[in-house]
Amino acid sequence: LAIFAAVYLGFARTFFLRPWFTEYAATRAPPEPFFYLHGAVFAAWFVLLVVQPALVGAGRTDLHRALGRIGAAVAAAVVVTGVAGALIAARRPGGFMGIPVPPAEFLLVPLTDLTLFAVFVSLAIVRRGDAQSHKRLMIVGSLCLLDAAIARWPIVVDLGNPLVFFALTDLF
Asked: Per-residue pLDDT tens for 15-40?
């Protein structure tokens, strides 16, 4: 729930609650329509991150397993849309929105995050028979994506220092 809350807070003004923050979104949200798909896919991942453990807690491991197949497809879509989104952002004249680092240099950050996500989630899928390893690998994989959300928290974005959002991500 804390991870989902962090994502919601980070993307509330530019995605989840965008109609209520039109002035902010006009200057801080990506202009390309592709990012609606990107946001929907990533949001679906984080919704699954809340729903799946709740199903296990309710004793519905049968439904958890069935939804897990869809989750694997969503994870693949996260990687594909994440890479595409990073490349789109890196090609913008201003680069990544709100990031003072040159786009070609900063591109390493989302590509590394996505690679680590793919590795940890793939390992979690392989280790699905070991519940303790599976759940921990899913969480660690999801945490690899969290820095993008934390970088957009209202206080953090005003600081303009990328080290702050990496430090806050590490706290998770």
From this structure: 999 999 989 888 888 889 999 999 99
Q: What share of the chain is helix, strand, coil (3-state, %, to 5)?
A: 80, 0, 20
Structure tokens at 93: 């004249």
* Distance from C-alpha of 101 to C-alpha of 65, rounded to nearest angstrom: 42
Provide DSSP, 51-110.
Answer: HHHHHHHTT-HHHHHHHHHHHHHHHHHHHHHHHHHHHHHHHSTT-STT--S-HHHHTHHH
Of residues 51, 45, 41, 43, the one with CA closest to residue 17: 43
| Mean predicted lDDT score pLDDT of the chain | 93
Q: What is the pLDDT of residues 94-140, one digit of tens each?
A: 888 877 788 999 999 999 999 999 999 999 999 999 999 999 999 99
